[in-house]
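Sorry, any thoughts here?
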Amino acid sequence: MPMKIPAASKVLLVLCLLYLILYIDRVNISTSAPLIKAELGLTNGQLGLAFSAFAYPYAFFQLVGGWLGDRFGPRRVLLVSGVVVTLATLATGFVGGLGSLIAARFALGLGEGATFPTATRAMAAWIPEARWGFAQGITHSAARVGNALTPPIVALLVGYVSWRGSFLVFAAFNLLWIVPWLWVSRGETRRRAGKDAPARRATPWWALARRMLPVTAVDFCYGWTLWLFLSWIPSFFFDTFHLDLKGSALFSSGVFTAGVVGDLVGGLATDRIWKRTGRLALARRSVITVGFLGAFCFLVPVVLIHDLTIDAVFLSLAFFSAELIVAPIWSVPMDIAPQHAGSASGLMNLGFGIAGIVSPSCFGLLIDLTGSWTIPFGVSMALLLAGAALAGLMRPDRRFEDSAAY
């Protein structure tokens, strides 16, 4: 008799596939960036604007998408998001200049904006509370697998079908996710967070926003550095060490692989600390703080030493440390407001979206103005220290009570 797989495990597996696909769609353009820049005649600043175009609708839809996930359920919202992401990826392969590139990235941001808050809503409904850290860790680890796989895959595809053709291949791959999602989520559209949760009521936005503000600020500090890695690390190896596309892809893949481990370790660590101590605030904040401080320390040699091997190793260690932050910080909205997990995580990830607007374009402009990568890295390091300090203001151990807000 075949073993029956629990519904929670099925949902988690398909969400892992979703996160992998979404981050492939984010990183593929940064791997192809040197070729796109040359063919379209763009400066680093213009390329940074194209990178940032993704983040404008992405930031806005953190709020709208989180609400949609709470209102209409993950099944329908993630289905629509998957279709939009597929079409936007397809359109990227046909861009003819800066304007159309910005439009394609803007459309991708529309599609991806609702996905993470809505997926968090799904986790709050399907996954046991004691495993929330693990669920966030393994899904984001899958995202980093996408980061790690994309550079060598893009380099391979470019050799056969050009950078334009690579986007068409990825668009086709995106469609593969929709079928299993419709299968595992069937009949679960109205599932609520918790066994005895009451019927959903209107989201108390103002009260919830004030409650989530420290988490939003911490997520901005984390997001600044993540966008740096996702947008510019392939170009860093390409420009600084004069590698070809395959060489820069190989080293970038190594850096992103470290993030896979960081996400898993962060998720397991935060759940383990909570289980052993019973102190939820300690479990979330300690891992986040260690992640920020570790990333800061490991970026110091990158700024001071110009050596390919040393920079690759310490960038990997910095990315590993930064990714320790992900599982605990994404668990915090579920800790604080499980009944509004989509909206709460959207408010939190608004900080990440705003960082995505500012970080890639500022990074590119600073490179053009200074001809150096030192100052952009220095700004990121300052924000890592700020994030470590702000983490102490988060209170995941205090459940959001919204009865008075209605």
The mean pLDDT is 85. The two ends are 50 Å apart (CA to CA). The chain has one domain: 10-183+205-399.
